[in-house]
Amino acid sequence: MAQQSVLIFDDDEDLLNIFSFLFEDMGWQVFTHPTCDDVIERTRETKPNLILMDNWIPAIGGIAATQLLKADQELKEIPVIYISANNDVKALSAKAGADAFIAKPFDFDELSALAEKLTNKTGI
């Protein structure tokens, strides 16, 4: 089976390091970006199995970036996990059109289980 890959958009370097460590520990290939500029181009380049999208990310923000991805015929099937410390993360995630959400601070086990669930869809 091909190695799973994740593309992470977050402007918090510490969090990028934590996410990278977590996913690499799971055997995934990790790509990270501190802005969501060129979100379509970056996603096409890396062709990830999963995307993590931060809410407060320069320049256009996570909602607009996720909406761009979900409007793209080639990329819309890639699952997006929306990440935010905002109390309204569920509503923000829904507005963005993300496939799932996780609140900061997050639980490693919860995130890894969610990642596996979203990328191991069978027969859909």
Tell me what you see in this structure.
With 124 residues, this protein is α/β, with parallel strands linked by helices. The chain has five helices and five strands; from the N terminus they run E-H-E-H-E-H-E-H-E-H. The chain has helices spanning 13-25, 39-46, 62-71, 89-96, 108-119, and strands spanning 5-9, 29-33, 50-54, 80-84, 100-103. The protein has a five-stranded parallel beta sheet with strand order 2-1-3-4-5, with helices on both faces. Helix 1 links the parallel strand 1 (5-9) and strand 2. It starts with a strand and ends in a 5-residue tail after the last helix.
Strand content: 15-25%
Q: Determine the N-to-C terminus distance.
A: 18 Å
Helix content estimate? 40-55%
Largest sheet, if any? 5 strands, parallel
Mean pLDDT: 93
Q: Order of strands in the sheet with the most strands?
A: 2-1-3-4-5
**Oligomeric composition of the shown chains:** single chain
Class per helix and strand makeup: alpha/beta
Counting DSSP H or I runs of 4 or more residues, the number of helices is 5
Shape call: globular
Rg, alpha carbons = 13 Å
Unreliable spans are: none
Summarize the helix and strand pattern as letters. EHEHEHEHEH
Write down how many β-strands occur, each being a DSSP E stretch of 2 or more residues. Answer: 5
Question: How would you concisely characterize the structure shown here?
Answer:
With 124 residues, the protein is α/β, with parallel strands linked by helices. It is built from five helices and five strands; from the N terminus they run E-H-E-H-E-H-E-H-E-H.
